[in-house]
Amino acid sequence: MLEPERRPVMGQKPRPRPSRRGRWVVGILAGALFAAALGSLIDDQVQAHDRFDQARTSLGVTRHETGAVSAQLTELRRNFELVTTQAGSDSTALSQDVSQLKGAQAALAADEAHVSAQSTQITSLHACLGGVERALNALSVGKQSRAITALNSVSSSCSAAASSSG
Asked: In this structure, what are the phi and psi dihedrals at residue 4, rounded to the nearest 5 degrees?
């Protein structure tokens, strides 16, 4: 079927056909619009390419820094293992030193007790000898009762000295 020819409605003027110049203007405007759209698309693509290049460069820098940090982390782990091993050795040495110190403290306490016992024995011997000396002096001048009294006054000291000497 053929399309019926459009006829102007009564009272309406027929539309004039665009002139050659008008078609050129429309064509140029359409071409300019196409060129502007194409230029905008090209500009967007250039910007997207630039952003992609920047992102790739940033990724490369990040990978490089990640590698450096990973190497440092490996070094730190190795150092940590060495320090942990050294701390274990030092802890063992400290335990041995503490054990030796406790042994030395026990020996010192025993020596202090021995010195204290000897000091007590020396004091007893000194008191005993002082009484014997007084008794001998009394006997030398013929005072037998004074000599017996002197010996009686130090008998406990002499007994203590004799028993502690074994």
From this structure: -65, 145
Which DSSP state fits 87?
H
Of how many residues is the chain composed?
A: 166
Q: How many helices (H) and strands (E) does the chain have?
A: 3, 0
- Helix, strand, coil abundance in the chain, percent, nearest 5: 85, 0, 15
> If we measure between CA atoms, which residue out of 124, 132, 116, 126 comes closest to residue 157?
124
Residue with tokens 């990040």: 62
Mean of the per-residue pLDDT values of the chain: 89
Kindly list the distances between the CA atom of residue 146 and the CA atoms of 49, 124, 130, 158, in Å, as whole numbers in the listed order.
128, 21, 14, 18
Give dist(CA 139, CA 151) in Å, integer.
11
For residue 159, give the nearest of 119, 131, 136 by alpha carbon: 131
What is the C-alpha to C-alpha distance for residues 40 and 46, in angstroms, rounded to an integer?
10
Instruction: State the amino acid at position 142 in one-letter form.
Output: G
Instruction: Render pLDDT for 6-51 as a digit per residue (tens, 0 to 9).
Output: 555 566 676 667 788 888 888 899 999 999 999 899 999 999 999 9
Say if residues 157 and 124 touch (Cβ distance below 8 Å): yes
Per-domain boundaries in the chain: 48-165
**What is the rounded CA–CA span in Å between residue 35 and residue 122?**
124
Q: Which two tokens stand for residue 117?
A: 């016992």
